[in-house]
Amino acid sequence: MKKLNQEDTKRITDKVLSLSKADECTVTIDGGRTGNIRYARNAVSTAGLVENTSLAVSVAFGKQQGTAMINEFDDKSLEKAVRRAEDLARLAPENPEFMPTPSGAAFKASATFSAKTDAIDPEFRAQVAAYSIEACRKNKLVAAGFFTDESAFQTIANSRGVFGHQQRTSVDFTCTVRTEDGRGSGWVRRDASDVSKFDAREAADVAIEKALRSVEAKALEPGRYTVILEPAATADLLAYMFGAFDARSADEGRSFLARKGGGNRLGDKLFDEQVNVWADPWHPDVPVLPWDSQTMLPREKMDLIKGGKIAALQYSPFWAKKQGARAVGQPGNIVMAGGSKSTAELIANTKKGVLVTRTWYIRMVDPQSVLLTGLTRDGTFYIENGKIKHPIKNFRFNESPVTMLNNIDELGRPEILAGDETPLQLLIPAMRVRDFNFTSLSDAV
Question: What is the pTM assigned to this prediction?
Answer without folding.
Answer: 0.94
